[in-house]
Design goal:
3 domains, 14 strands, 10 helices, six-stranded mixed beta sheet, alpha/beta, 37% helix, four-stranded antiparallel beta sheet, single chain, Rossmann fold
Protein backbone atom coordinates (compact mmCIF):
# COMPACT_ATOMS: atom_id res chain seq x y z
CA UNK A 1 0.00 0.00 0.00
CA UNK A 2 1.08 3.57 -0.72
CA UNK A 3 -0.33 6.79 0.63
CA UNK A 4 0.22 10.51 0.15
CA UNK A 5 -0.76 13.53 2.25
CA UNK A 6 -2.23 16.64 0.68
CA UNK A 7 -0.42 19.24 2.74
CA UNK A 8 0.20 22.92 1.89
CA UNK A 9 3.73 24.08 1.18
CA UNK A 10 3.55 26.33 4.24
CA UNK A 11 3.57 23.20 6.43
CA UNK A 12 6.08 21.05 4.58
CA UNK A 13 8.55 23.77 3.63
CA UNK A 14 8.96 22.15 0.18
CA UNK A 15 7.72 23.28 -3.20
CA UNK A 16 7.75 19.84 -4.85
CA UNK A 17 4.86 17.36 -4.71
CA UNK A 18 4.67 15.23 -1.62
CA UNK A 19 6.33 11.79 -2.09
CA UNK A 20 4.34 8.60 -1.79
CA UNK A 21 4.97 6.49 1.31
CA UNK A 22 4.95 2.73 0.79
CA UNK A 23 4.45 -0.06 3.32
CA UNK A 24 3.25 -3.65 3.47
CA UNK A 25 -0.32 -4.31 4.61
CA UNK A 26 -1.13 -7.50 6.47
CA UNK A 27 -4.50 -9.26 6.11
CA UNK A 28 -7.26 -8.84 8.67
CA UNK A 29 -6.66 -10.78 11.87
CA UNK A 30 -2.88 -10.56 11.63
CA UNK A 31 -1.21 -9.23 14.84
CA UNK A 32 0.67 -6.56 12.84
CA UNK A 33 -2.23 -5.31 10.76
CA UNK A 34 -2.26 -1.92 12.56
CA UNK A 35 0.04 0.57 10.81
CA UNK A 36 1.41 3.66 12.51
CA UNK A 37 3.24 6.37 10.59
CA UNK A 38 4.73 9.62 11.85
CA UNK A 39 6.46 12.50 10.13
CA UNK A 40 8.08 15.75 11.18
CA UNK A 41 6.88 18.97 9.61
CA UNK A 42 8.89 22.16 9.31
CA UNK A 43 6.38 24.98 8.70
CA UNK A 44 7.75 28.02 6.89
CA UNK A 45 4.70 30.26 7.32
CA UNK A 46 2.62 30.97 10.38
CA UNK A 47 -1.14 31.32 10.41
CA UNK A 48 -4.13 29.09 9.73
CA UNK A 49 -3.29 26.37 7.16
CA UNK A 50 -5.68 23.87 5.57
CA UNK A 51 -4.62 20.23 5.33
CA UNK A 52 -6.19 18.15 2.56
CA UNK A 53 -7.25 14.53 2.30
CA UNK A 54 -5.18 11.34 2.46
CA UNK A 55 -4.82 9.49 -0.86
CA UNK A 56 -4.31 5.71 -0.86
CA UNK A 57 -3.19 3.12 -3.42
CA UNK A 58 -3.61 -0.64 -2.86
CA UNK A 59 -1.73 -3.03 -5.12
CA UNK A 60 -2.11 -6.79 -5.33
CA UNK A 61 0.76 -9.15 -4.54
CA UNK A 62 1.66 -9.76 -8.19
CA UNK A 63 0.97 -6.19 -9.24
CA UNK A 64 -1.93 -7.16 -11.49
CA UNK A 65 -4.51 -4.88 -9.89
CA UNK A 66 -4.46 -1.43 -8.26
CA UNK A 67 -7.21 0.15 -6.24
CA UNK A 68 -7.27 3.80 -5.25
CA UNK A 69 -8.93 5.30 -2.22
CA UNK A 70 -9.35 8.64 -0.47
CA UNK A 71 -9.74 9.34 3.22
CA UNK A 72 -11.46 12.65 3.88
CA UNK A 73 -9.28 14.19 6.57
CA UNK A 74 -9.54 17.86 5.61
CA UNK A 75 -8.90 20.08 8.62
CA UNK A 76 -7.39 23.43 9.54
CA UNK A 77 -4.39 23.83 11.80
CA UNK A 78 -2.82 26.95 13.19
CA UNK A 79 0.92 27.45 12.90
CA UNK A 80 2.11 29.59 15.79
CA UNK A 81 5.23 31.78 15.70
CA UNK A 82 8.53 30.05 16.32
CA UNK A 83 8.58 29.99 20.11
CA UNK A 84 12.00 28.32 20.29
CA UNK A 85 13.58 30.97 18.05
CA UNK A 86 11.95 33.73 20.08
CA UNK A 87 13.15 32.21 23.35
CA UNK A 88 16.66 31.82 21.95
CA UNK A 89 16.77 35.51 21.01
CA UNK A 90 15.16 36.77 24.22
CA UNK A 91 17.12 34.60 26.68
CA UNK A 92 20.31 36.74 26.72
CA UNK A 93 18.28 39.83 27.54
CA UNK A 94 16.22 38.05 30.16
CA UNK A 95 19.37 36.84 31.91
CA UNK A 96 20.93 40.29 31.62
CA UNK A 97 18.21 42.20 33.46
CA UNK A 98 19.42 41.34 37.00
CA UNK A 99 23.06 41.62 35.91
CA UNK A 100 22.43 45.14 34.66
CA UNK A 101 21.87 46.42 38.17
CA UNK A 102 24.19 44.07 40.06
CA UNK A 103 27.33 43.92 37.94
CA UNK A 104 27.41 47.21 35.99
CA UNK A 105 26.63 49.98 38.48
CA UNK A 106 29.11 52.42 36.92
CA UNK A 107 27.65 52.26 33.44
CA UNK A 108 24.01 53.02 34.25
CA UNK A 109 22.35 56.24 35.23
CA UNK A 110 20.20 56.62 38.32
CA UNK A 111 17.71 58.90 36.55
CA UNK A 112 14.26 57.34 36.34
CA UNK A 113 15.17 54.20 38.29
CA UNK A 114 13.35 52.64 41.23
CA UNK A 115 14.81 52.12 44.69
CA UNK A 116 15.24 48.43 45.53
CA UNK A 117 17.38 47.99 48.66
CA UNK A 118 20.30 49.25 50.76
CA UNK A 119 23.66 47.49 50.65
CA UNK A 120 27.30 48.12 51.64
CA UNK A 121 29.43 50.29 49.38
CA UNK A 122 31.46 48.40 46.76
CA UNK A 123 34.26 49.53 44.51
CA UNK A 124 32.78 51.10 41.40
CA UNK A 125 29.68 52.54 43.10
CA UNK A 126 28.91 56.23 42.59
CA UNK A 127 29.17 58.52 45.60
CA UNK A 128 25.89 60.20 44.70
CA UNK A 129 24.10 56.91 45.50
CA UNK A 130 25.20 57.05 49.16
CA UNK A 131 22.45 57.03 51.75
CA UNK A 132 23.86 59.35 54.43
CA UNK A 133 21.34 58.48 57.15
CA UNK A 134 21.89 54.74 56.74
CA UNK A 135 25.67 55.36 56.65
CA UNK A 136 25.51 57.28 59.97
CA UNK A 137 23.48 54.56 61.64
CA UNK A 138 25.61 51.66 60.40
CA UNK A 139 28.99 53.35 60.81
CA UNK A 140 30.04 52.33 57.29
CA UNK A 141 29.30 53.43 53.76
CA UNK A 142 25.80 52.38 52.62
CA UNK A 143 24.47 52.95 49.12
CA UNK A 144 21.01 52.79 47.57
CA UNK A 145 20.67 49.91 45.16
CA UNK A 146 18.34 50.74 42.30
CA UNK A 147 16.63 48.67 39.66
CA UNK A 148 15.13 49.39 36.29
CA UNK A 149 11.60 50.72 36.55
CA UNK A 150 8.92 48.07 36.31
CA UNK A 151 5.28 47.97 35.37
CA UNK A 152 5.86 50.18 32.34
CA UNK A 153 3.82 50.01 29.15
CA UNK A 154 5.32 48.31 26.10
CA UNK A 155 3.28 48.25 22.88
CA UNK A 156 4.06 45.95 19.95
CA UNK A 157 2.69 47.45 16.73
CA UNK A 158 2.81 45.15 13.69
CA UNK A 159 2.19 46.20 10.11
CA UNK A 160 0.41 43.45 8.11
CA UNK A 161 0.22 45.37 4.81
CA UNK A 162 1.49 44.33 1.39
CA UNK A 163 5.07 45.52 1.93
CA UNK A 164 5.50 42.85 4.60
CA UNK A 165 4.87 40.12 2.00
CA UNK A 166 8.47 40.43 0.78
CA UNK A 167 10.82 37.51 1.40
CA UNK A 168 14.32 38.93 2.00
CA UNK A 169 17.33 37.02 0.81
CA UNK A 170 19.04 34.96 3.50
CA UNK A 171 15.80 34.30 5.44
CA UNK A 172 14.72 31.04 3.76
CA UNK A 173 11.02 31.09 2.89
CA UNK A 174 9.98 33.42 5.69
CA UNK A 175 8.22 36.67 4.83
CA UNK A 176 8.92 39.95 6.57
CA UNK A 177 5.68 39.53 8.53
CA UNK A 178 6.86 36.17 9.90
CA UNK A 179 10.21 37.70 10.86
CA UNK A 180 8.63 40.68 12.63
CA UNK A 181 6.17 38.35 14.37
CA UNK A 182 9.06 36.35 15.85
CA UNK A 183 10.71 39.63 16.90
CA UNK A 184 7.50 40.77 18.61
CA UNK A 185 7.17 37.49 20.50
CA UNK A 186 10.80 37.62 21.60
CA UNK A 187 10.42 41.19 22.85
CA UNK A 188 7.19 40.28 24.65
CA UNK A 189 9.07 37.57 26.56
CA UNK A 190 11.92 39.91 27.50
CA UNK A 191 9.58 42.74 28.54
CA UNK A 192 7.39 40.40 30.60
CA UNK A 193 10.46 39.04 32.36
CA UNK A 194 11.47 42.62 33.13
CA UNK A 195 8.16 43.29 34.87
CA UNK A 196 6.60 45.43 32.14
CA UNK A 197 3.09 45.20 30.69
CA UNK A 198 2.90 44.25 27.02
CA UNK A 199 0.16 45.20 24.56
CA UNK A 200 -0.31 44.19 20.93
CA UNK A 201 -1.73 46.12 17.98
CA UNK A 202 -1.71 44.48 14.52
CA UNK A 203 -3.29 46.24 11.55
CA UNK A 204 -3.70 46.35 7.79
CA UNK A 205 -6.49 48.33 6.19
CA UNK A 206 -8.41 47.53 9.36
CA UNK A 207 -7.34 46.65 12.88
CA UNK A 208 -6.72 42.89 13.08
CA UNK A 209 -5.63 42.38 16.69
CA UNK A 210 -5.92 44.72 19.66
CA UNK A 211 -4.78 43.55 23.09
CA UNK A 212 -4.16 46.35 25.60
CA UNK A 213 -1.48 45.81 28.27
CA UNK A 214 -2.73 43.80 31.21
CA UNK A 215 -1.22 43.91 34.69
CA UNK A 216 -0.70 41.02 37.07
CA UNK A 217 -0.34 38.25 34.49
CA UNK A 218 3.37 37.51 34.81
CA UNK A 219 5.65 36.39 32.03
CA UNK A 220 3.86 33.11 31.28
CA UNK A 221 0.45 34.75 31.29
CA UNK A 222 1.39 37.56 28.92
CA UNK A 223 3.16 35.25 26.46
CA UNK A 224 0.24 32.79 26.59
CA UNK A 225 -2.10 35.67 25.75
CA UNK A 226 -0.02 37.11 22.90
CA UNK A 227 1.17 33.89 21.22
CA UNK A 228 -2.24 32.76 19.80
CA UNK A 229 -2.97 36.31 18.63
CA UNK A 230 0.28 36.43 16.67
CA UNK A 231 -0.62 33.12 15.05
CA UNK A 232 -3.87 34.62 13.71
CA UNK A 233 -2.29 37.54 11.85
CA UNK A 234 -3.29 37.73 8.19
CA UNK A 235 -1.07 38.98 5.43
CA UNK A 236 -2.94 41.63 3.42
CA UNK A 237 -2.35 42.59 -0.20
CA UNK A 238 -3.34 46.23 0.24
CA UNK A 239 -1.53 49.15 1.82
CA UNK A 240 -1.80 49.35 5.59
CA UNK A 241 -3.56 52.31 7.20
CA UNK A 242 -0.82 53.69 9.44
CA UNK A 243 -2.79 56.78 10.50
CA UNK A 244 -5.67 54.65 11.78
CA UNK A 245 -3.29 52.59 13.92
CA UNK A 246 -1.52 55.68 15.30
CA UNK A 247 -4.79 57.46 16.10
CA UNK A 248 -6.17 54.42 17.90
CA UNK A 249 -3.01 54.04 19.95
CA UNK A 250 -3.05 57.71 20.94
CA UNK A 251 -6.64 57.37 22.15
CA UNK A 252 -5.98 54.21 24.13
CA UNK A 253 -2.58 55.00 25.66
CA UNK A 254 -2.51 58.27 27.60
CA UNK A 255 0.43 57.41 29.82
CA UNK A 256 3.89 57.58 28.23
CA UNK A 257 4.81 54.17 26.80
CA UNK A 258 7.51 52.43 24.82
CA UNK A 259 6.12 51.67 21.35
CA UNK A 260 7.96 49.23 19.09
CA UNK A 261 6.62 49.66 15.55
CA UNK A 262 7.64 46.89 13.14
CA UNK A 263 6.96 47.97 9.58
CA UNK A 264 8.50 48.86 6.23
CA UNK A 265 8.88 52.27 4.59
CA UNK A 266 7.18 52.56 1.17
CA UNK A 267 8.86 54.11 -1.82
CA UNK A 268 7.12 57.39 -2.64
CA UNK A 269 8.03 60.88 -3.78
CA UNK A 270 5.91 62.35 -0.99
CA UNK A 271 6.30 62.11 2.77
CA UNK A 272 5.37 58.49 3.63
CA UNK A 273 2.23 58.06 5.68
CA UNK A 274 4.23 55.89 8.06
CA UNK A 275 6.57 58.80 8.80
CA UNK A 276 3.65 61.15 9.47
CA UNK A 277 1.96 58.67 11.80
CA UNK A 278 5.24 58.00 13.58
CA UNK A 279 5.76 61.71 14.17
CA UNK A 280 2.40 61.90 15.96
CA UNK A 281 3.31 59.04 18.30
CA UNK A 282 6.83 60.33 18.98
CA UNK A 283 5.46 63.57 20.50
CA UNK A 284 3.92 61.68 23.42
CA UNK A 285 5.62 58.29 23.58
CA UNK A 286 9.05 56.74 23.16
CA UNK A 287 8.83 55.31 19.64
CA UNK A 288 11.19 52.74 18.18
CA UNK A 289 10.49 52.31 14.48
CA UNK A 290 12.12 49.09 13.27
CA UNK A 291 12.66 48.68 9.54
CA UNK A 292 14.48 46.08 7.44
CA UNK A 293 17.62 47.50 5.89
CA UNK A 294 17.27 48.01 2.08
CA UNK A 295 20.29 45.85 1.31
CA UNK A 296 19.24 45.07 -2.27
CA UNK A 297 18.77 48.76 -3.12
CA UNK A 298 22.07 49.67 -1.49
CA UNK A 299 23.80 46.96 -3.50
CA UNK A 300 22.36 48.38 -6.73
CA UNK A 301 23.37 51.91 -5.79
CA UNK A 302 26.93 50.86 -5.01
CA UNK A 303 27.73 48.81 -8.10
CA UNK A 304 29.74 50.38 -10.95
CA UNK A 305 27.84 50.92 -14.23
CA UNK A 306 28.85 48.70 -17.14
CA UNK A 307 26.45 49.99 -19.76
CA UNK A 308 24.07 52.88 -20.34
CA UNK A 309 21.09 51.03 -18.88
CA UNK A 310 22.93 50.57 -15.58
CA UNK A 311 23.13 54.34 -15.16
CA UNK A 312 19.34 54.60 -14.97
CA UNK A 313 19.12 51.74 -12.46
CA UNK A 314 21.83 53.20 -10.23
CA UNK A 315 20.32 56.69 -10.39
CA UNK A 316 16.89 55.34 -9.40
CA UNK A 317 18.40 53.39 -6.49
CA UNK A 318 20.29 56.46 -5.24
CA UNK A 319 17.12 58.55 -5.41
CA UNK A 320 15.17 55.93 -3.44
CA UNK A 321 17.84 55.86 -0.72
CA UNK A 322 17.94 59.66 -0.54
CA UNK A 323 14.17 59.94 -0.08
CA UNK A 324 14.29 57.20 2.55
CA UNK A 325 17.02 59.01 4.50
CA UNK A 326 15.07 62.27 4.43
CA UNK A 327 11.94 60.59 5.79
CA UNK A 328 13.86 58.85 8.58
CA UNK A 329 15.74 62.06 9.44
CA UNK A 330 12.41 63.80 9.89
CA UNK A 331 11.31 61.07 12.29
CA UNK A 332 14.50 61.35 14.30
CA UNK A 333 14.04 65.13 14.53
CA UNK A 334 10.61 64.48 16.10
CA UNK A 335 12.26 62.38 18.82
CA UNK A 336 11.66 58.89 17.43
CA UNK A 337 14.33 56.21 17.44
CA UNK A 338 14.83 54.46 14.10
CA UNK A 339 16.42 51.03 13.87
CA UNK A 340 17.43 49.88 10.40
CA UNK A 341 18.80 46.37 10.49
CA UNK A 342 19.10 43.41 8.09
CA UNK A 343 15.94 41.30 8.21
CA UNK A 344 17.73 38.26 9.64
CA UNK A 345 18.92 40.27 12.68
CA UNK A 346 15.73 42.16 13.54
CA UNK A 347 14.79 39.97 16.52
CA UNK A 348 18.14 40.25 18.32
CA UNK A 349 18.44 43.98 17.57
CA UNK A 350 14.99 44.83 18.95
CA UNK A 351 15.56 42.95 22.21
CA UNK A 352 19.00 44.54 22.61
CA UNK A 353 17.57 48.04 22.09
CA UNK A 354 14.88 47.37 24.68
CA UNK A 355 17.59 46.39 27.16
CA UNK A 356 19.52 49.61 26.54
CA UNK A 357 16.40 51.70 27.07
CA UNK A 358 15.68 49.89 30.34
CA UNK A 359 19.24 50.41 31.53
CA UNK A 360 19.23 54.12 30.78
CA UNK A 361 15.76 54.64 32.23
CA UNK A 362 14.60 56.57 29.17
CA UNK A 363 10.95 55.94 29.95
Amino acid sequence: MRWQDDLPMALTGASADEPWTQTAVWPAGHPSRTITSARTLHPCQRGVQTCGDLYLQFQSTWGLAVRRGRARLTQSVMVLPDLEAARHQALPAMLDLPLAREMRPTRTRARGREFEALRPFREGDEWRDLDWRATARAGRWIVKQRRSERNQMVWLVLDCGRLLQARPSGTSLHSLLDITTTAALSLAMAASFGGDQVGLLAYGREIQILQPPAAGQGMAGQVRRILPALGQLRQESSEADHRRAASLLLRLQKRRAFIVWLSELPETAFVPELAEAGSLLARRHLLLLTLPEPTEVEALAGQPPRQARDMYVITAALEMLQRRRRALARLRDQGAQVLEIPAARITAAVVERYMRIKERGDL
